[in-house]
Design brief:
The structure holds two protein chains of two kinds. In chain A, a hairpin with an 8-residue loop joins strand 9 and strand 10. Chain A is mainly β. In chain B, a hairpin with a 3-residue loop joins strand 9 and strand 10. Chain B is mainly beta. The chains are: A mainly beta, B mainly beta.
Amino acid sequence: ETGVTQSPTHLIKTRGQQVTLRCSSQSGHNTVSWYQQALGQGPQFIFQYYREEENGRGNFPPRFSGLQFPNYSSELNVNALELDDSALYLCASSLVLAGGSEFFGPGTRLTVL
Amino acid sequence: RKEVEQDPGPFNVPEGATVAFNCTYSNSASQSFFWYRQDCRKEPKLLMSVYSSGNEDGRFTAQLNRASQYISLLIRDSKLSDSATYLCVVNWMDSSYKLIFGSGTRLLVRP
């Protein structure tokens, strides 16, 4: 069984640029969620995808967008990067649409200069 | 009021000690509850789900009090390897799905 994988592991961008982060869900999982974790904080829910549709969204501006593909992998896109976007971005997959526990990937550490 | 609140700690305890963490949540429509463990610079990992009847997994016991909107985690006979940040997590559906993490409680177990 393959766990959740994310790429890249680290990324450095400058303000105003755009970034795409990628996630492959755990084998058999059809739901993917994305989180932003700033240093010293718990993960903040960005959004969740189920069957290629956004199923829920946290308090993040529209410049945070995502996609889910038929194989359940997912992308997180962030436009017009700001310094405060520097964080660990975590992808998590689950089998149950809502109410189930989630399994996290190792994350992508994004630094915005 | 934060949606999920935890004491940030750190809790600094000797090996073998018993330590308890508490967590409160604001949304009475919350449906599922979990404790996750996060080691430094690693991803969160599910420690255990929390049920109304309470549940135990080895040295770990979780309790849920829906009336008080309160969740607890008890760790008995602490090991050095228990040193980590413990995240309280609440899941609810309002207009859409949300999984809300607390900021975490840091545990340091000393020899």
